[in-house]
Amino acid sequence: MVFEVIGTPSPEREHRVQQLAELGFTWANLEDEAYWIDQVVLMEQQTYAKLIVAAESLWRVFDKAVRYVKGNRSLYEQLSIPEVLWDGLDRLELNDIGAISRYARFDFTVNQQGEIKLLELNADTPTGYVEAAIATPWLCEQIGLVSPNAEMKNLIRAAWDIEAPDFAACIAYGRHAEDTGTIDALVAHSGRTMTCVDCLDLWIDEGVVKVGDHQIISNMFALYPKEWMGIDDGGEALSYAIEEQFIQLFNPLHAVILQSKGLQALIWELHKKNSAMFTLDEHKAIAAYMLPTFFSPELSGDYVSKSMFGREGGSVELYDATGVLEVKDEAGFDTSVFFKRVYQQRADLPEIGFAHGNRHLLTGLFVLGGTPCGLLGRAGGKITGNASQFVPIGVKAP
Questions:
Q1: Which of 67, 75, 231, 379 lies at a CB distance of 3.0 to 4.6 Å from 359, suitable for a disulfide?
Q2: Quick one: pLDDT at residue 312?
Q3: Does ATP-binding count among this protein's keywords (predicted)?
Q4: Contact at 8 Å (CB) between 190 and 223?
Q5: CB under 8 Å to 193, separation ≥6 — which residues?
Q6: Per-residue pLDDT tens for 15-40?
Q7: Which domain holds residue 372?
Q8: What's the number of domains the chain is made of?
Q9: 60 lies in a domain?
Q10: How wide is the angle at C-alpha 109 spanned by C-alphas 324 and 354, nearest 5°?
Q11: Residue 250 bridge partners (DSSP)
């Protein structure tokens, strides 16, 4: 058994919720609902080591795929990247190998037999940082465990030293608890003196990004999905500012290529053609850890359909062995009204028993500055959506 649930929910939940809030995790309870599960999932050391290797290998594979895509507008279109971003993607230089995104998260399904399969990569604006970097180490410490997640803050500091943003932004900063808390934690761990702003307070004057009457922003970390520049009012102006280098955005613009789930279909296509772009070991990693993914519905059954830029499960549809729709996410926003879909072989999440019932466990693993570090557990239904809960994942001592 790879996973073991330990501990029982404390009768003093509200006290523990307050302690977590003092650490910066202020959404352990969301209104009347418990978002945080007061237990710990333990992962076998051997499986954790294998997960790190999988992430390292796949990070190299995805990096190569982005370099293959850059400059090819037919591939931009195939990956559903908004046209407003194309000039910037062509004109701006890619970051060094392994650094196209410095703040990313792989989402895996890891079953009780130790089989690891990648579901998707959020390489642009992953949340869950506070849960993984702050709450998980503290909760593990309460039961005498040392969490590998404790290293996350050092990796963030190193990454932000390179990008050196002076501003950090999200939508509804100061009002949206999760995004605000994520920004605040990242800024604190970066060790930098920064100004945090609401994206909706930004304005652009002939390509110059400003906040307030006169303050110019030239380097900014933004928890704002880049694909929305093709949809939002002001998106074209912001893309122009990035393209003309009035502002440097972190994660960089090319993270949007990594973010597209269509990149997984492209990688699979290149793998099946035995592309010389990938080494033998990288082909082995693709075969071992990735799921067959296609641009069109080629699978007859046991597959998943989802938007290339879907988030929080909003566009996910699961099909059974006969090709009949079994379940779809009804709560999240279906972004496939704006972006194309991909079709991926189905790999279900393992069902784990908790004190309040069985839940399906998603295993997230952050990649910070190119280094895999930071387990994030989400427990919910067959589709991990907004109703899913956070559960800390620790690693058994060797």
A1: 379
A2: 66
A3: yes
A4: no
A5: none
A6: 999 999 999 999 999 888 999 999 99
A7: 3-146+351-395
A8: 1
A9: yes
A10: 95
A11: 221
